[in-house]
Queue: 2 jobs
Job 1
Amino acid sequence: MTIPTGAESARPFLPAKDFQVSKAFYEALGFEKLLDGDVAIFAVGHGPFILQNYHQEDWAGNFMMRLMVDDLDARWAHIESLDLPGRFGVRPPTPPAQQPWGLRIVYVVDPSGVLWHVAERRPGAVQDQNRGCEPLRSAVGRPRRAGIQQRRRVGMLWRKG
């Protein structure tokens, strides 16, 4: 049996404790809002996600996303300039740091408790590339601007304090 191909796209559903605050948070970070209705669809580069007006504490507190970027220092400068704790009541983001598994990462927690790993893409690391993906396009057709133990360890380190 042949597996069908085409424009498949996996879009995770993220929780929102306060839907309006979460939408403002993602817009401040630079995500493009593609849809705003009963759910909101946000995207940056190749990765859209669906923000839903639903929150379940255990789920949100164990949910993680990863955003791969070319220049982590530039992204960190943007994140740091936003005063996310002051504006959105979130934990302060962590500055870029090299992790034991090889990635430089900034950790950001959204207003609902979702942990974002903002990681720098490594040249030549095939697992860091968006193979076979084209950037999402806006409504007018222009390209937009562009292991379990590890999760437990990161979650425990991040959620301390």
Job 2
Amino acid sequence: MPGTAPERPLPLVVAVVGAALAGVALVVLAIASLAAGHGSFSGGVGVVLLAYGAAMLAAAWGLWRRSLFGRGPVVAFSLLNLAAGVTFTGSSGWLWLGVAVSAVTAVAAALPATSAALHLRREPGPVNEPGEPLPRDDRGR
């Protein structure tokens, strides 16, 4: 149909779903930290987790809308989650699930199909043969 957006490729959908799952998990951890009531430290951790989770959800939404500015934060946050998850997996085995989701999300966001969906294609330019002068603009540069 004319005027409809092209279908989203699977890697883009996987990256969005993974980022959204991580964002929701962070918001849930923030609420749990705030509800624990262990004093101001627990409240501060809860506020930071809430902001981080909201940023992750905003990045996922941006990527879903095919915004170029959604991909960078999704990749960065996923790699940060991956590093933090690997650090803490010794204390809880279920954290490997978060590590796997973060790894899949980062890879899916970086795949060529996601780049193509975000219109990040490099158009081929003029190729100069060895020894051929570079093309000049109208001002002789």
